[in-house]
Design goal:
alpha/beta, TIM Barrel, 2 domains, 4-stranded parallel β-sheet, 6 helices, 4 strands
Length: about 130
């Protein structure tokens, strides 16, 4: 968050400040905290309760690696976020995965990443 609510740097000459047009107003800032470790998972509700936090965001690959399993307690993260009036977020790979995430209660859902899309296009271009 920007001062006075937070300590985020203002840096007027970057993309976030429209290269000199002015720092983004506080109302335009979204704070998504990544839940990708066992500790963050255990403290998810306390993290969600922090002033200024908008989203508890899960990177499934990182959380799965940290927990040593692909069976993730995603409902617990949704519950923690909702209990504090915050959104739960999830990285997904496909439109279908995103739809399922929305059905589970996630409200901030990403679909894919630029590296996935580039790799897919490269494979398609190289295919006979």
């Amino acid at each position: 968050r920007y001062p006075p609510r937070g300590t985020r740097g203002v840096a007027y000459m970057n993309r976030g400040a429209d290269f000199g047009a002015g720092a983004a107003p506080e109302r335009d800032v979204l704070v998504a905290i990544q839940i990708e470790t066992r500790g963050a998972l255990q403290e998810a509700r306390e993290i969600a309760a922090c002033d200024g936090v908008d989203v508890l965001f899960v990177g499934p690959a990182d959380l799965g690696a940290a927990l040593g399993t692909s069976e993730l307690p995603l409902d617990a993260i949704v519950d923690a976020a909702q209990a504090e009036g915050k959104a739960a977020g999830l990285f997904t790979r496909t439109h279908e995965d995103a739809e399922r995430a929305l059905e589970r209660g996630f409200r901030f859902v990403t679909v894919g990443a630029d590296s996935f899309f580039l790799a897919e296009a490269a494979r398609a271009a190289a295919a006979p």
